[in-house]
Amino acid sequence: MSIRLANISKAFGNTKVLSNISVEIEPGEFFVMVGPSGSGKSTLLRMIAGLASVTEGRIYFNERDVTDLPSKDRKLAMVFQNYALLPFMNVAQNVRFGLENQDLSDDEKTERVEWALNLVHMADLSDRKPKELSGGQQQRVSLARALATKAPVVLMDEPLSNLDAQLRTEMREEIARLHREIGMTLIYVTHDQVEAMTMGDRILVLNDEKIQQLGTPLDLYNHPANEFVAKFIGSPEMNLLPITVNDEGDRFSIGDAFWTDNAFVLPFDLPAGSYHLGIRPEKLVPVSIANPDTITAKVKSLQQLGNDTLIFCDYDGQSLVSRVPEQFTVAVGAELNLLLPASADEWHLFNVDDGEQIVAAPEEGAATYGA
Amino acid sequence: MELNKELNKTTTDSKGNVVTKIRENNKPAFWFLMPSLLILTLFTFYPMIMTIYNSFFATNIRGESAKFVGLNNYFDIFKDPLFLKSLAGTLVYVVLFALVTIVLGVVLARLATMKLRRIGWFQTAFAGTMGTSAAAASILWLFLFNPSVGIVSFALKAMGVSKTNLLVDPTGAMIVIVLASVWMALGFAFLILLSAFQSVPPEYYEVADIAGWSQFKQTLKITVPMISPTLFFLFVVEIIDGFKMFAQIDLITGGGPNNATNFLAYKIYQDAFVFHNFGTASAESIVLTVIIALATWIQFHFTERKVYYA
Amino acid sequence: MTHVKTGARYLLLTVVAVLLLFPILLGIWASLLPTKDIAAGNFLSTNISLNNYWQAFVTTPIIRYMINSFVTAGLITIGQLVLCTLAAYAFAFMNFRYKKQLFFAFLVTMMLPFEAEIIPNFQTVKAFGWLNNYAGLTIPFFTSAFGVFMLRQAFLQIPTDLVDFGKYLGLSRLQFLWKIAVPYSRSMMITFALYTFLTHWNQYLWPLITTFTDDFRPVQVGLKQLQSEDTFANWGMVMATAIIVLLPTLILLLIGQKFFKRNLNAGGTKG
C-alpha cells in the first residue's frame, strides 16, 4: 500500500510540532523516520496510525483519503515501544488479541497466530506470560501480533529502544528479515541514526517541525542537505570548521578571516566569503609529514575501538576528530598532521547563516540537494 | 470493493468534522459518572445540606424542624457542659488512640522486618486483628474486662487490687476504650507501616552497618525519617477514624461511666435517635464535620506532596 | 548470628504475637468451655466441646444475621465495583467539561463524615420505604469517592502504549474497560473488593438505626442484640457467636493478604 502525506501540520494548542509535511511512501518500502526527541516523528506516526488527530493536511492510503478514518479501519498494524502486551494473557492470547474485532473465523485466527509466532520463532513459548519473557522475546511477541493481522502497512514506534545493545542488533536483523519475507510497507520511527542507516530503504530526517532531508541512507551520509543532517547522521559527528575564502576564490583560511600566510589551496573554485566546511572523520587522515594541505593539530585523546581508532584533536581552539581504520598509536599532547581532503566529494559546505548545503564544485559534478 | 465504498463513505460523512471521529466525544462521560453522582448527591451532598439546615432549627417531639432558632443550637451546645465534656474526652481519646497505634505499629513493623525464616507467618499474625469487626472485638474486650468473669479482673484480684471493675471508673473506661480501639486499628496500621519499612532501600542500612550503628539507632535515625510521610498519613487517618468511633462505645461502655466515654459520634447518635433532638444533634454533626474536613484536608494537602521531614 | 540470638528473636516474636492475638485466642478458648466453668473463673477447665456453637446456631438467629450480612456486604461490593469502575474510567481516560469541578466534588465527599449525615439519610430512606430492608442497607453505599480514586489511580498506571493499542484495535469504551483496563488492574480491583466487603461486613451504626427485625439485621447489630438479651450471662455462647462473626473476615484476610500488602500502601499514600 502506498501512503501519501499531503501538507500535514500538527499543533497541540498553540505549540506547533509539525508543519507542512509532504511525503510519499512507496508500497513495500522500509521507510524510516528519524530525529531527535521532540522532533515530532512519533506524532507523525501516530497521525498515520489514526491515534492522533491531524491539525491540517490530508493522509492518503493508496490515494484514498483516510485522514478521518479511525485506526481500526485503516488496515494497519502497529508495534509499540513498550510492547503493549497484556500482562494477564499468555503469548498466544496476546497475538490473538490483535485480531480482536477482525472478521475472521476462530480457525483462521488460530492459524494466523501460529503462523506469526513461527515467523518470529516464538511458537515454543506460546504458553508463557509476558513477564516470563525477556525484553527481546516480548518484542517478538509484539511483532507477531502485528504480523498476524496481515496488514499491508506496519508501523513501528521505537520498537528497539528498550532493548540492550546486543539484542538491538539481533532484532534489527530480525525486523529487516521479516520485511524482506513479507514485503509489507513498513514505517519505522527511531531516534537512533545507526538503526535508521542500517535498516531503511529511505530515511526521513525530522527536526524543528520540518523535514530536514529525505533520501536513501547513503544520500544522507554523502550529501547531507544541511548542517543538522550532517551532524545527526554518522558517528562520530562530522567535523564542522568555519573557513574564509579569499577574493580570488582559490585559497582559504580556517577561521573567520583570510590570512595569506595561513592559507590552503581550494580543490575547486568558490566565491569569496565565509562558509562552514564539513569533513567526515574518516576523511581527515593523519599523515607523517606536514605539507601545504595539512593542518597541525594537538592530540587531546584517543579511543581505541579495535578495528578503528578515533583521534580527538584541537586545532586553534577547534575540536576535530579523525577516524583511522586501524589500530593507531599517538601520544596525547603530540602534534599530528591531518590532511585536508582534496576531492570535492569529501567536502561538505554549508551556509554560515542558515546551515543549508551549498552546492559547489560544478566541475566535479556533485548533485544538487536542497531543502 | 465493499470495504472501499465504506471507507469513502466515512470520509465524506465526517468532512469538516475532523476531531470528533477520532477524538473524545463528551457525552459518554456523563453516563459513566451519573450513577455515582446520583448516589453521592442523594446520600452525601443532600444530607449534608439538610444537616446544616436542621442545625438552625429547634425540633419538635416527632423530630421535625419546627422553629428557626438561628445559631442558638450552636450557642447552646458550646454552653452545655455535657457537650464540652464530650468534646474534651473525644480529643483526649483521639490523640491517645492515634499515638499508641502508631508507636505499637512501628514496633511491630520493626519486629516483622527482622531477617528470619518464616517471618511471613509472624507478619500474618501481626496483621490478624485487621478484619475484626468493632462489634465482635468489643465483645472480646468486654469479656476480658468483665468484673465477674473477665480475666483481667481475675488477674487484678490476684495482685490484690480492690477496684477490679475498670469499666465503672472514668479513667479505667477510657483506658479500656483506647486499648480496644488501638487493638482494632493495629492490623491496618501494621500492614501500612510494614510496606513502608520494606520500601526503604537496603543501602541505607548497609552504610549504617559499616558505620557501626545499633539496630535501635538505625530504626530511629534511618527508618523513621524515611517513612515520615507514611507516619504522617497514618496519624491523620487514625485521627479521623478516632473521631468517627462509635461501635466500641455503644457495646462496651454505653458512654459511661458518668459520660466519661460519651464521645462525639456517640453523643450525636444519642441526641438524635434516643432523645430525638435533631436540632442539637445536627449542630453537633456540623462540629464533627468541620473537624474531620479539616483533618482530611490536611491529609490531602500534605500527603500529596510527600514531604520528607528528615 | 548465633543460635541463641535467633532463638531469642523467635521467642520475642511469638510472645508478641500471642499477646496481640490474646483476646481472640481467649475468645476461642472460652467458646469451647461451659459457661459455668467460665463464671467460676475456671479457665483451665478441660471440659471443652462445641456445645456453645451448637447452642448458638439452634437458639439464636445468628445464621439469619450472617446471611443478612453476606447479602448486604456482597451487594455493596458489587455495586461499588461497577459504579466506582465506571466513574474511575471517566476520570482516568475521558475529557469532558467540568472534569476538574466534578473531581473536586468527589474529593469533597471524602471530607464529610457519614456519621454527620445519618439524620437526613435516615429520613430519606424512611421516605423511600427502605427502612428495615436490604435496599436501605445497601443503596446508599453503592459508590465511594475512595474507590473511585483508588481505581482511577490503578487505571492511570496502564501504559499509554496499551491505551493506544486499544484505540488502534478500535475497541469501544466498554470493550477497553472490560478487556484491558479491568484485567490489567485486577490486583487493585480485588484489593478494593476485599476492602469494601470487610468494611461493610463490619458496618455497625447505619444498620443499628435502620433495621428493626431479625429478617434484615446484619450480624454486627445482631451481636448487640444477643448480648443485650437474656443470653448475656451465657458467656460461652456469646463468645461462640463472636468467633462465628470473626471467622469469615479472618478467612478473607488470609486469602487477601498478599493483595493488601501490595496495594494498601500505594492506595493509601497516593490517595
At a glance:
With 371 residues, chain A is of the alpha+beta class.
Describe, in plain words, how this protein is organized in 3D.
The complex is a heterotrimer of chains A (371), B (310) and C (271). Chain A has a 6-stranded mixed β-sheet with strand order 6-7-8-3-9-10, with helices on both faces. A 5-stranded antiparallel β-sheet of chain A has the order 13-12-11-14-20. In chain A, strands 15-19-16-17-18 form a 5-stranded antiparallel β-sheet, with no helix packed on it. Chain A is elongated, with a radius of gyration of 25 Å. Chain A has helices at residues 41-49, 91-97, 106-119, 135-148, 165-182, 193-199, 217-222, 227-232; strands at residues 3-12, 15-25, 30-34, 56-61, 64-65, 76-79, 153-157, 185-190, 202-207, 210-215, 239-245, 251-254, 264-265, 273-279, 285-287, 294-304, 309-315, 318-324, 335-339, 348-350. Chain A has 2 domains: 3-227, P-loop containing nucleotide triphosphate hydrolases (Rossmann fold, 3-Layer(aba) Sandwich), CATH 3.40.50; 234-364, Nucleic acid-binding proteins (OB fold (Dihydrolipoamide Acetyltransferase, E2P), Beta Barrel). The two termini of chain A are 27 Å apart. With 371 residues, chain A is of the alpha+beta class. In chain B, strand 1 and strand 2 form a beta hairpin. In chain B, helix 9 runs antiparallel to helix 12 (228-244) and helix 9 (170-198) packs antiparallel against helix 13. Chain B contains 15 helices and 2 strands. Chain B has 2 domains: 2-54, no CATH class; 76-305, MetI-like (MetI-like fold, Orthogonal Bundle), CATH 1.10.3720. Chain B has a two-stranded antiparallel ribbon with strand order 1-2. Chain B has helices at 2-13, 18-22, 27-54, 72-79, 81-111, 119-126, 134-145, 151-158, 170-198, 202-211, 215-226, 228-244, 247-253, 264-274, 278-305; strands spanning 57-59, 65-68. The model of chain B is unreliable at 1-24 and 305-310 (pLDDT under 50). By secondary structure, chain B is an all-alpha fold. In chain C, 46% of the residues are buried. Chain C has a domain at 61-222 and 247-270: Orthogonal Bundle (MetI-like fold), CATH 1.10.3720.10. Chain C has 271 residues and is mainly alpha-helical. Helices cover 75% and strands 0% of the residues of chain C. Chains B and C meet through helix 3, helix 6, helix 7, helix 9 and helix 12 of B and helix 1, helix 4, helix 5, helix 6 and helix 12 of C.
